[in-house]
Amino acid sequence: MAMKLKLLELTDDRARILFEGEGKTYINALAAELINDPEVDVAQHRQVFLFADPELVVTTIGGRAPLLAITDAAKRLSGVAGELLRQVEALDTA
Fold first, then answer.
1. Distance (Å, rounded) from C-alpha 23 to C-alpha 39?
2. Mean of pLDDT values over 31-47
3. pLDDT by residue (tens digit) across 53-81?
4. Does 92 have pLDDT greater than 90?
5. What secondary structure does DSSP assign to 32-80, as a single string?
6. Rounded to whole angstroms, how far apart are CA atoms 40 and 80?
7. Is residue 37 a contact partner of residue 74, using CB atoms and an 8 Å limit?
8. Do 65 and 12 touch, CB atoms closer than 8 A?
9. Are 45 and 55 spatial neighbours (Cβ–Cβ below 8 Å)?
10. Torsion of the alpha carbons at 42, 48, 50 and 52, rounded to the nearest 10
11. pLDDT, mean of residues 74-90
12. Contact status, residue 39 vs residue 94, Cβ threshold 8 Å
């Protein structure tokens, strides 16, 4: 099932994305990975109400495009998840 995203705000150094119908777990992991990027100033999860859709807010520095920073962080998370899956599958065959 694909995530449904809604771009709420986009400037040269700031993006706000709403993750419709999603929980906050993935957004928190993505925000934590974004903070590892030296050109990301702020990466935070926002949720106005307990059962509202979560929002990711990212601001960048040094001319880094916020959507590119988000894309790169999502790719890094995907790589980590893929490696974990390979290792768990290897345990099953051992």
1. 26
2. 95
3. 999 999 999 999 999 999 999 999 999 88
4. no
5. HHHHTSTTEEEEEEE-SSTTSPPEEEEEE-TT--HHHHHHHHHHHHHHH
6. 20
7. no
8. yes
9. yes
10. -100
11. 91
12. no
CB of 62 within 8 A of CB of 49? no
pLDDT at 93 over 90: no
**Please, what are the domains in the chain?**
1-66 (3.30.1360.10)
CA-closest candidate to residue 39, choices 74, 9, 75, 69: 69
Task: Decide if 9 contacts 16 (C-beta within 8 A).
Answer: yes
Tell me whether strands 14-20 and 40-46 are parallel, antiparallel or unpaired: unpaired
Summarize pLDDT for 3-28 with one digit per residue, the tens. 899 999 999 999 999 999 888 888 99
Structure-block tokens of residue 59: 């601001």
The pLDDT, as a whole number, for residue 1 is 65
**Phi, psi at 2, each rounded to 5°:** -80, 145
